[in-house]
């Protein structure tokens, strides 16, 4: 059987090599059988690349000889699951070099079953969820935007304002283009037409798109929205997400087959300017129009070639660096990280081959989980380290950053490959407490002498009658230990909130916030105010350990929309500080499906033995 092949390579010696991309949203009852098919078929045909299977779909990017790819298509079409599937087959050159082949996954065959959603997210093209909240259910794919063929899409742009059918826009001003791709993709190519506005979210990764849609919904409300992406897969889920927002978001359309099919239909580029970034060794695919849309990150000259694979030293996003500016051992900071004050420009390597990342000097006192390194690690040329999650850690009542770091040393050690924990002292300094002796001698009731190395204690919230003076070293206890004392500690939130805003502006960005006991109550309050604090306190998730809810209207059941992990002692856990029900009530304040719970039997601590540490890692890895 013959197949249509996009021949974008003029060298006849290389035309025998090709790339095949396709996806399918459907319920797959027997993943094991499909896994066996791909392993057997792809290996027998000598195909390399990635195959991702999930309970509700398949995503495939493989390369090999064109005849082998055509044989694979025939075999896949024999499976009823792939009825109506758009198989995108293109001739191609072989990978430019080993680095490109390795990054794009074309050095071996990888067939895996994954548990998350189906979408091309990065150069790995894993099956992942669209949502920036990995714990939430993805939008209903059956509610995706209406498919438009390349011809329909082009016609609509060409005659914006004319009827396509009864659902088509009738006013030029009501039509808007929405690019569902990442910033490094839109840098080198996008749709442009004078009569239609193009919205470019400029996001780092696909999972950031829902947040952008939420924040910019008024630009979309009431409009006829034309969405597009590389090959169509991302628009399936993203268009369903837009439509899920309800009234005012009904008219959503998507380019079927994506930019790839559009360029095949319009080889001169049509309304698409520049190149189409692709997640395989081709890197990008252009039209006959040789105009360059991209520009060098450093000098600004016209440039759109990512083959050097230069990346931001902080977030690892690709950056464009032209041949003239390319220097061995240089460090680059992308525009998104610059926006968050992570340093600018390119820094040459030092004589010993190390590269020091320039960072602002901070005045706030912080403690990192690994005190042997600076807030960002030293980078050695030739080694690519994945960016770790940065998690801001809030200690409990009457603790401090140093003590909390010590208590969580085991946690930091077991998370060292995926997370950096940053500890800070709370802003409210507390006096030390002593319990007077029952002895009759007045000397027995005097406070003890402070050791020289005794560290001060702090709190995020204090009781209304607490002394405001930080000159008091000791305070006589009002009575025996009260396990419910936290219920009276309700003053000082605004001071702590302002303090945390300063921390984030000087040391951010942070991916998440972790709180223990009173620190968890503070962190939970920030989760509740997440939308109002955007731009001042930005983070993607919260980890709340032995937490409880403050007496606030913000903590109504199901009212908080933020991914969260709740870790607390079970009824048999014997947590003398925070009752199981208090932590459970806090978890219930988060939206259904937005929170995960780990109950343990270890008391008032953060457990680090199995299976608890595995569950903690599992939660965090969703955000890498």
TrEMBL record:
**Keyword set includes Transferase:** no
Q: From the record, what ranges are coiled-coil?
A: none
Annotated keywords: Metal-binding, Zinc, Zinc-finger
Return the SUPFAM superfamilies for the record. Answer: alpha/beta-Hydrolases, FYVE/PHD zinc finger, Rhodanese/Cell cycle control phosphatase
Any Pfam family from its record, for instance, is: Rhodanese
Q: What is this protein called?
A: Rhodanese domain-containing protein
SMART domains per the record?
Answer: RHOD
């Amino acid at each position: 059987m013959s197949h249509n092949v996009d021949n974008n390579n003029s060298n006849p010696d290389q035309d025998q090599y090709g790339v095949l991309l396709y996806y399918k949203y459907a319920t797959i009852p027997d993943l094991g059988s499909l896994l066996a098919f791909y392993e057997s078929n792809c290996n027998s045909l000598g195909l390399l690349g990635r195959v991702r299977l999930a309970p509700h779909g398949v995503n495939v990017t493989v390369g090999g000889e064109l005849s082998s790819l055509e044989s694979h298509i025939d075999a896949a079409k024999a499976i009823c699951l792939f009825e109506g599937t758009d198989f995108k087959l293109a001739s191609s050159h072989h990978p430019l070099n080993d680095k490109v082949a390795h990054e794009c996954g074309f050095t071996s065959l990888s067939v895996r079953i994954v548990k998350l959603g189906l979408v091309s997210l990065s150069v790995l093209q894993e099956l992942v969820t669209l949502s920036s909240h990995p714990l939430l259910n993805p939008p209903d794919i059956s509610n995706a935007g209406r498919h438009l063929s390349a011809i329909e899409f082009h016609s609509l742009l060409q005659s914006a304002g004319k009827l396509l059918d009864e659902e088509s826009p009738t006013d030029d001003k009501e039509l808007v283009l929405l690019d569902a791709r990442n910033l490094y993709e839109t840098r080198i190519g996008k749709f442009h037409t004078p009569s239609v506005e193009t919205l470019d979210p400029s996001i780092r990764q696909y999972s950031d798109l829902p947040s952008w849609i939420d924040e910019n919904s008024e630009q979309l409300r009431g409009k006829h929205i034309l969405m597009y992406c590389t090959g169509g897969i991302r628009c399936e889920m993203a268009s369903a997400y837009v439509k899920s927002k309800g009234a005012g978001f009904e008219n959503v359309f998507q380019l079927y087959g994506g930019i790839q099919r559009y360029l095949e239909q319009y080889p001169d580029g049509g309304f698409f300017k520049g190149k189409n970034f692709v997640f395989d060794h081709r890197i990008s695919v252009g039209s006959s129009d040789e105009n360059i849309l991209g520009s060098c990150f450093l000098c600004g000259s016209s440039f759109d070639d990512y083959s050097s694979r230069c990346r931001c030293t902080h977030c690892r996003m690709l950056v464009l660096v032209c041949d003239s500016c390319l220097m061995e051992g240089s460090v680059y900071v992308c525009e998104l990280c610059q926006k968050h004050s992570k340093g600018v420009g390119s820094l040459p390597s030092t004589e010993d081959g190390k590269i020091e990342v320039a960072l602002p000097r901070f005045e706030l006192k912080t403690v990192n989980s690994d005190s042997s390194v600076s807030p960002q690690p030293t980078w050695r040329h030739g080694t690519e380290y994945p960016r770790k999650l940065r998690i801001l850690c809030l200690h409990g009542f009457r603790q401090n950053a140093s003590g909390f770091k010590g208590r969580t040393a085991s946690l930091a050690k077991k998370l060292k490959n995926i997370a950096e924990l940053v500890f800070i002292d709370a802003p409210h300094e507390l006096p030390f407490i002593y319990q007077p002796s029952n002895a009759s001698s007045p000397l027995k009731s005097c406070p003890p002498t402070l050791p020289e190395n005794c560290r001060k204690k702090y709190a995020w919230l204090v009781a209304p009658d607490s002394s405001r003076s930080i000159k008091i070293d000791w305070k006589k206890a009002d009575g025996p230990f009260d396990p419910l004392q936290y219920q009276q500690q309700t003053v000082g939130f605004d001071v702590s909130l302002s303090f945390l805003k300063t921390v984030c502006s000087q040391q951010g960005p942070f991916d998440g916030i972790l709180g223990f006991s009173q620190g968890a109550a503070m962190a939970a309050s920030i989760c509740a105010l997440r939308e109002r604090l955007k731009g001042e306190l930005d983070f993607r998730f919260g980890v709340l350990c032995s937490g409880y809810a403050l007496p606030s209207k913000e903590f109504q059941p199901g009212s908080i929309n933020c991914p969260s992990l709740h870790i607390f002692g079970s009824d048999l856990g014997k947590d003398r500080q925070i009752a199981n029900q208090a932590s459970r009530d806090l978890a219930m304040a988060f939206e259904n499906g937005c929170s995960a719970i780990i109950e343990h039997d270890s008391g008032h601590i953060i457990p680090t033995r199995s299976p608890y540490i595995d569950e903690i890692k599992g939660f965090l890895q969703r955000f890498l």
